[in-house]
Amino acid sequence: MTSLPSEEPVRRRLAGLALLFLKLGTTAFGGPAAHIAILEDEIVRRRQWLTREEFLDLLGATNLIPGPNSTEMAIHIGHRRAGWPGLVVAGACFILPAAVIVTVIAWAYVRFGQLPKAEGLLYGVKPVIIAVIAQALWGLGRSALKTRPLALAAVLAAGLCVAGINELIVLFGTGLGLAMARAIHTRQRPSGGAPLLSLAPALPLAAAGSVSAAAAAPFGLWPMFLFFLKVGSVLFGSGYVLLAFLRADLVDRWHWLSEGQLLDAIAVGQFTPGPLFTAATFIGYLLAGLPGATLATLGIFLPAFFFVAVSGPLVPRLRRSPFAGAFLDGVNAASLALMAVVAWQLGRGALTDWLTLLLALVSGLLLLRFRVNSAWLVLGGALAGLGASWLRS
């Protein structure tokens, strides 16, 4: 791993992590795929804290555990950079700015009864995000898809995703397929099965079944905290999956929220920077003010720290085993395929006219040719979108 000299004080590394992730938590719009791309730009290209191969291995491992992928990547990076203190600092600093922003919006929502207008902001930010994701895919793809079988696996994985196959099936299927092909090719018995199985999400998924069967209860801070702890422990997939989880209990079973309030919470998570899971912060504030916002945020994000702490040390062991290493290569290829499909889906909604196309092209040029920091590009896109919105009004 590429890092600063070993004699550099841990305190300085922690300060660097805190500053970087506080900045990203304030400026990283666009959802998990965009966040991963921005992290690649900051961690691999600019600071060289990780190689592309190490970054890809962490990305592959992150996709195999429940929880918010981009937050878990931040936690992984913090652990690699500064050990257990870094794990806490990086994750907390990525979550905190978004949680504060969402809490302020929730306060305004409760007081004034509506969300702030964000159409102009998102109009300019989304094309920039597409360019950032495309740049990351290009760089990561050159490292991950280094053989024809891996490139073919990525294409097949993308096709399966477009066809609607569950993303976990795609990830595990691609990884296991390449691992078995490696074992057959070398005529060796697969090794490294123990760390491989340790990344499997069977235990949290089994726990989900038992917790979901709990009887409905009147609102309380403790039941709310446990609910969000359960969601953070078992949730795979996109924000739409989060919406389904929240709707089933909070709206249909317990009637703690209205349908409109839940949709507003998801909207806030989408148009604010940082993790989409901060929708829980908004919901917690609606239900119980600042204590509710705090407990909901802790509940939904705490499992991410646990899963990374458990799975992170296994990643180097996976890479050392030929069988498990081939599995991880397959998961990495499928992860990039998922990211590409998300970028394509986002692009259809973001690149709608000549101005958005121009913003995407200029952003791509500035990223590839001049290595402009993606945070500045996002800020520029936001200003352009607000300006265009003002001119139209």
- What integer value in Å does the Rg equal? 21 Å
Number of helices: 17
User: Main β-sheet: number of strands, strand sense, barrel status?
Assistant: none
Outline type: globular
Number of strands: 0
Mean pLDDT: 83
User: What series of H and E elements makes up the topology?
Assistant: HHHHHHHHHHHHHHHHH
Portion of residues in beta strands equals: under 5%
What distance separates the N and C termini?
Answer: 51 Å
Helices and strands: which structural class?
Answer: mainly alpha
- Percentage of residues in helical conformation: over 70%
Low-confidence stretches: 1-5, 201-215
What's the topology here?
Blueprint: H1 10-27, H2 32-46, H3 52-62, H4 69-112, H5 119-144, H6 148-162, H7 167-186, H8 193-198, H9 202-212, H10 221-234, H11 239-253, H12 259-271, H13 279-311, H14 314-320, H15 322-350, H16 354-370, H17 374-392
Helix pairs in contact: 1-4, 2-4, 2-5, 3-4, 3-15, 4-13, 5-15, 5-16, 5-17, 6-7, 6-15, 7-15, 9-10, 10-13, 11-12, 12-13, 14-15
